Amino acid sequence: MKRLIPFLAAISLGCSLGLAQAADTKADAKPAAKSEAQLAQQEKMKSCNTDAKDKTGDDRKAFMKQCLSAKGVTATPTQQEKMKTCNADAKGKTGDDRKAFMKDCLSAKPAA
């Protein structure tokens, strides 16, 4: 019995040191940097999710599948592209007319 207690104490000390070392290794590990493809997919997901905000259920699921599977083609123009198009279309308009036109143009949903 006298030999059993020091033996168990040694085993439990060894286990606790091993767990502490494993915890330190995990804490020191840095997350891997995202690749360009992962970042592009993340942006695509963000864009598709924004476009699908008014959809629910099966309609949303179908839209997201179609939107995410589109290769390199964005389903909606970016805000900058919208701005260029609306500015070009607003030539000749001034004052309140231009302001109203730009508001409608920029907030219009793209034709699908």
List keywords for this structure.
single chain, 112 residues, mainly alpha, 5 helices, 70% helix, rod-shaped
Descriptive notes:
This protein is mostly helical. Among the domains are: 35-75; 77-112, no CATH class. The chain contains 5 helices and no strands. Helix 2 runs antiparallel to helix 3 (57-69) and helix 4 packs antiparallel against helix 5. The longest helix has 25 residues, at 4-28. It is rod-shaped and about 100 Å long. The N and C termini lie far apart (81 Å). The mean pLDDT is 77.
Give a concise summary.
By secondary structure, the chain is mainly alpha-helical.
* Average pLDDT reading: 77
Helical residue percent band: 55-70%
Please give the alpha-carbon distance between the first and last residues: 81 Å
How many H/I helical runs? 5
- N-to-C SSE series? HHHHH
- What is the 3D shape? rod-shaped
Give the percentage of residues in beta strands. under 5%
Topology:
Layout (H helix, E strand, L loop, with lengths): L3 H25 L7 H16 L5 H13 L9 H11 L5 H13 L5
Helix pairs in contact: 2-3, 4-5
